[in-house]
Design a protein that fits this description.
This protein is of the alpha/beta class and 231 residues long. The chain has 2 domains: 3-125 and 208-224, Rossmann fold; 134-205, ACT domain (Alpha-Beta Plaits). Helices cover 28% and strands 26% of the residues. It contains 6 helices and 16 strands. It has helices spanning 3-13, 32-46, 57-65, 103-111, 143-154, 188-196; strands at residues 23-26, 51-54, 69-70, 81-85, 88-89, 95-96, 116-121, 134-138, 158-160, 162-163, 166-167, 175-179, 201-204, 206-207, 213-218, 221-226. The strands form 4 sheets. The chain has a 7-stranded mixed beta sheet with strand order 3-2-1-4-7-15-16, with helices on both faces. The protein has a 4-stranded antiparallel beta sheet with strand order 9-12-8-13, with helices on one face. Helix 2 links the parallel strand 1 (23-26) and strand 2 (51-54). The structure holds ribulose-5-phosphate.
Length: 231
């Protein structure tokens, strides 16, 4: 099966977590795109009544095109569920996100959601996070200094992500640094906290203890992986 078909399977399967009356965080990326398309179809054809909060300008545009009602997170008392993609997830459901440069809004929305459902194809499943370069959102001000501090803290190469015309600028007007840690992030919460200590770091693409469910599509079909409740 090709990867696009797997993305569609995972994205559409996640829609079972959405019912009328829900407030839904809408993630960003090429997998959750299929979730948004399916939710839009259900809104138009089945009368699904939801309100969405988008995690990027690209998602906002797509959701509007699909006829999904949107509002600001600040207008709501939290969300029922967020559905989002991931770049990697490990056996503890810790995530690397930010491949699409939307990590800051994605994390704000995920933190406000009662449940986080992640949609992924089986390339995203890893034993140890970090083969995917870790995205870190930083202020444009003195980003060279922040880059050096990140390299020193992690002991690895890191690079400013480039757009078409110089550094890529996020929806929040910031830059992204991608850190080439390799698959060495054994304690994601520790790495996240250490990076957040650097003043120029706005947010880190490590989503620790947030994900509740992974909808995983592979050659053998779709599996629903639920995190054990340890509380
Ligand atoms: C955007 C993200 C995406 O969710 C992540 O990059 C996965 O995207 P895709 O489904 O296109 O592989 O974190 O910031």
């Amino acid at each position: 099966m090709d990867v696009e078909a797997l993305k569609a399977e995972a994205g559409i399967a996640a829609c079972t977590y959405v019912t009328s009356g829900m407030k839904v965080g809408l993630g960003t990326g090429s997998t959750v795109k299929y979730t948004i398309l399916e939710l839009g179809r259900r809104v138009r054809e089945d009368g699904l009544d939801i309100v969405g909060v988008p995690t990027s300008l690209a998602t906002e545009l797509l959701a509007k095109e699909q006829g999904i009602a949107l509002c600001e997170l600040d207008e709501l008392e939290g969300l029922d569920v967020v559905i989002d993609g991931t770049d990697e997830f490990d056996p503890d459901f810790q995530l690397i996100k930010g491949g699409g440069a939307a990590l800051l809004r994605e994390k704000i929305v995920a933190q406000s959601s009662a449940k986080m459902v992640v949609v992924a194809d089986d390339r995203k499943k890893v034993q140890c996070l970090g083969a995917f370069p870790l995205p870190i959102e930083v202020t444009p001000f003195s980003y060279g200094t922040t880059l050096k501090a990140i390299q020193e803290k992690l002991g690895c190469e890191a690079n400013i992500r480039q757009g078409e015309d110089g550094p890529l600028v996020t929806d929040n007007g910031n830059f992204i640094i991608d850190a080439q840690t390799g698959p060495t992030i054994r304690n994601p919460a520790h790495t996240e906290a250490a990076l957040l200590h650097i003043a120029g770091v706005v947010q880190v693409g490590l989503f620790t203890n947030m994900c509740d469910v992974v909808i995983l599509a592979g050659a053998d079909g779709v599996s629903v992986l639920e995190k054990e409740d340890t509380s």
